[in-house]
Structure prediction request, 163 residues.
Amino acid sequence: MVDLGLCNVGYNDEVRLLMVMDKILYLEDRVGIPVNEFVTMTMHMTIGLSPPRLELANTAGEVQAVIDDSRWIVHCPNPMCNGALYASRDLPFFCCVDCGSPENGGLWYKVVYPQDSTAIEIALLARPRVAKLKDGRLVGRGWDPGQTVDDLVQENRELGIGD
Prediction:
């Protein structure tokens, strides 16, 4: 995969065609390895530490996944860190690769997705990849807790998208 910023481009192995994938991305779409392996490798390279083995005994607390620029991500809850990481669909856990999550004792957080995540993705995918200006602010493919699917659909209507 090659990151072009707002969309991902990859080769389909069977037909060897360059394809643009229009979807909300998860960690697995970007790196192709489980989150625990990615975090271990990246954390070791960036801060010289390794997270504890990913198992229930090594988890504490929860963090909310959000959508930012067509990506499910988790922001590090450590107030001294500005890190973020793609959220994993297959193993919904998070440990910050930038700081090691010391505020959580270095343990893994459980990543929480909204119950209506599929409907949220559908509403956002109706929008163009490039954000549009609405009332002096850019409205793109992003979602934060507190926004409902109805909110997103209404924004789409105000932007002239959808019915």
Remarks:
- The first strand starts at residue 2 and ends at 3.
- The chain has two domains: 24-112, 117-158.
- Residues 24-112 form one domain.
- The radius of gyration is 17 Å.
